[in-house]
Write a structure and sequence with these properties.
- The chain is an alpha/beta fold.
- Helices cover 49% and strands 12% of the residues.
- The chain has three domains: 164 residues, Nitrogenase molybdenum iron protein domain (Rossmann fold, 3-Layer(aba) Sandwich), CATH 3.40.50; 111 residues, Rossmann fold; 134 residues, Nitrogenase molybdenum iron protein domain (Rossmann fold), CATH 3.40.50.
- Helix 16 links the parallel strand 13 and strand 14.
- Helix 2 crosses helix 7, helix 11 packs antiparallel against helix 12 and helix 11 packs across helix 13.
- The longest helix has 24 residues.
- The termini are far apart.
- The structure holds iron/sulfur cluster.
- Iron/sulfur cluster binds next to helix 3.
Length: 509
């Protein structure tokens, strides 16, 4: 019988305390991870995904981003190592979003964590799964607790029977958003593929290429967008290559084998590093709206060494159709916009070009060189651009600007609807449509116009329900709620007394 060697974990005790997770104990987990030998990874994350002014945007567990990227790839198995409650939430969310694929899980308990048996269990699981007939790659994701206890995924073999093994740490205390967690995995895969390409010949793309210089796209987009962008750059003699995150391992090689990279979503810092290491120029922003398309086509053309007359040809073709559409229809109304997808600034640009007044745009993602151009454009139009926006800032913007439409995340939309303001979910209703070129203009004008037109329905509902279910009367009541204003007055008095006492102590000290 083969005996499995046990590798003791550097710092298991730090993570066996009860109740540590994203809801509490973030600092302890961070310290534990640093003392467990993960400082280098955490420092790289701190550099790649800068925090502040708000540390942790209130979005879903960041690991979902990596999980989603893994689950969307053909011939790739994704395995998680983490607390059962985290894995439950993550598998639930991935199936909610139509994963149609099993999620692997290596469970642990205090004993397997403390003895280091967890790492051996992971190694065993990876060996069992590594079937080259079925898989190109296996992704292992360390969630918060295994990262903090130092489960050394880097000690896993780089490949087993030809199946690539990609181990990544994606703790909520190191990676701020699920958007950036997509980059953690995409970057790790690009690095692996780049090293393979440097070592020798690699697999050809599944579909033969046209022989034209290609532009790789960075970011998950609506499926029509790459096609639309391809039509826009065709007059320059360029074509669209792979989109990262890719759907297949061999697409990573074609992505790297491009002439230039379009960082459509601006937060793929680790992926950009790999492209730059491969000597590929990177261009930010995207072809949205008149100004955006004009500037982006120019930047892409220059990055690829295209002559000015060909750039102008591409611009004339793309902008003509857009101008025609904009002359026919416009958006009328004030809109606040917030989200965690990374494309918020692009959508805000398009909304403004379509006629909307946009006083505020909030993004959970950070400012990067790839959205600097969009931020500057928006600021020149008087828009308040909030990077790493918190939920409180997004809701405060809705309250302050009283828009005719609030586009945002679920809790922002909920707050807006309560205030009788028509609203749209960014993820489901804006990201699920084309954004680029004339198609983006047409689609956005239509969906936004219809939503703003719903105000009368909101007013009718408000008239009908009045204050039922609002404030103190929220929740399920068996009988008519009885208000107790005297309790409120008491509580207010006590709070005021406490505040005065604290102030007096502060002045006396
Ligand atoms: S893995 Fe995700 S859900 Fe679990 S504690 Fe970390 S951030 Fe929270």
């Amino acid at each position: 019988m083969k005996s499995i060697p046990i590798t003791p974990l550097p710092n298991p005790a730090a993570t066996t305390e009860q109740g540590l997770g994203c809801h509490a104990g973030k600092d302890e987990l961070q310290k534990a991870a640093a003392s467990a030998g993960k400082s280098q990874v955490l420092e790289q994350y701190a550099q790649d995904y800068p925090k502040g002014p708000h540390d942790q945007p209130q979005s879903m567990c960041p690991a979902f981003g990596s999980l989603r990227v893994g689950l969307r790839m053909r011939r790739t198995a994704t395995i998680m190592s983490g607390s059962a409650c985290c894995v439950y939430g993550l598998t639930f969310t991935s199936h909610f979003y139509g994963a149609r694929r099993s999620v692997g899980y290596v469970p642990f308990n205090s004993e397997t964590l403390v003895t280091g048996k967890l790492f051996e269990d992971i190694r065993e699981a990876v060996h069992r799964e590594a079937d080259p007939d079925k898989l190109d790659a296996i992704v292992i994701i360390n969630l918060c607790v295994p990262t903090a206890s130092g489960v050394p995924l880097q000690l896993l073999p780089k490949q087993i029977n030809g199946v690539r093994i990609i181990g990544i740490d994606v703790p909520g205390f190191g990676v701020p958003t699920h958007a950036e967690a997509k980059d953690v995995l995409a970057g790790a895969m690009l690095r692996y593929a780049r090293e393979e390409a440097m070592a020798g010949p690699v697999a050809q793309p599944r579909q033969a290429r046209a022989g034209l210089p290609t532009i790789s796209l960075l970011g998950e987009m609506f499926p029509a967008d790459p096609v639309i962008v391809g039509q826009m750059i065709a007059p320059m003699g360029l074509s669209i290559g792979a989109t990262v995150p890719t759907r297949e391992w061999r697409e990573l090689y074609s992505a790297l084998d491009c002439t230039a990279v379009a960082a459509i979503h601006p937060f793929y810092t680790a992926s950009v590093r790999e492209f730059q290491a491969a000597g590929r120029p990177v261009v930010g922003s995207a072809p949205v709206g008149i100004d955006g398309t004009h500037d982006w086509l120019g930047a892409i053309g220059q990055a690829c060494g295209i002559a000015a007359d060909k750039i102008d040809l591409a611009r004339n073709q793309a902008l003509g159709a857009m101008r025609g559409l904009l002359a026919q229809a416009r958006i009328k109304g004030r809109i606040t916009l917030s989200g965690y997808e990374g494309s918020e600034l692009l959508v805000a640009r398009l909304l403004i070009e379509c006629g909307a007044e946009v006083p505020y745009v909030g993004s959970a993602c950070p400012a990067t060189p790839w959205n600097a151009h969009d931020a500057a454009w928006l600021q020149s139009k008087g828009v308040h651009v909030q990077f790493r926006a918190s939920l409180e800032q997004d809701i405060a913007a809705v309250r302050e600007f009283k828009p005719q439409l609030a586009i945002g995340t679920t809790p922002v939309v909920q707050a807006a609807k309560e205030a009788c303001i028509p609203s749209l979910y960014f993820t489901n209703l804006i990201s699920a449509r084309p954004l680029m070129g004339a198609a983006g203009v047409g689609s956005l004008i239509q969906v936004v116009g219809a939503a703003i037109g719903n105000q009368a329905r909101f007013d009718a509902m408000k008239d009908f329900f009045g204050s039922v279910g609002a404030g103190d009367e929220a929740g399920v009541w068996q009988e008519q709620p009885v208000m107790h204003p005297e309790f409120k007055a008491d509580m207010r008095r006590m709070a005021e007394k406490k505040r005065k006492k604290a102030k007096a102590e502060e002045m006396g000290s």
